[in-house]
Amino acid sequence: MFLYKSAAAGAAVEEGSHRFLRVSGFSSSSSPHVCRMNYMPGTASLIEDIDKKHLVLLRDGRTLIGILRSIDQFANLVLHQTVERIHVGKKFGDIPRGIFVVRGENVVLLGEVDLDKECDQILQRVSIEEILQEQRVEQQAKQESEKRKLQAVKERGLSIPKADALDDF
Q1: What H or E segment, with its residue span, contains residue 53?
Q2: Which among 50, 65, 42, 57 is positioned nearest to 110, based on CA atoms?
């Protein structure tokens, strides 16, 4: 059974792995004004974070920022007013994505965004076109670097197995 914190009900108090809700006029066996709430481990504990702004890091490296609207037992997420944030060096750009459904197995990190500290960024916000161009340049530089490394390894008589060949084991 879940009891939700509300201004009318009172304040939630946490002791160990149990949560208590102080309710005026409520009587229980342990205390006249304390109602015991079971603490749910795992994704159920994220129920308190619904309707708050979160940052989600995905397995493919993308970063999403949006308002958490729903979560289930598999950590599947529904984000509202979502933006995809792209970082390149000290620059970043946000691409609006709207409502975003994320399969739980793709979530690497999920954290609440501190709205007070969000404005104290040392990064420079740039336009979508500019950040996408910077990202393309960075990816091309990485590809050229990998080609040079592979060529140097081949010149030394070594071989590196292809990444997709490793999936067979």
Answers
A1: strand 53-58
A2: 57
In the numeric block, which tokens belong to residue 121?
């960024």
In a 3-state reduction of DSSP, which class is residue 127?
A: coil
C-alpha closest to that of 129 among 90, 94, 100, 81: 94
Whether this model's pTM surpasses 0.85: no
In DSSP terms, 53 is beta-bridged to 67
The pLDDT tens digits along the chain (169 residues) read: 333 333 333 444 444 444 444 444 444 444 444 444 555 566 667 788 899 999 999 999 999 999 999 998 888 999 999 999 999 989 999 999 999 999 999 999 999 998 877 665 688 889 999 999 999 999 999 999 999 999 999 888 887 777 665 555 4
3-state SS class at 116: coil
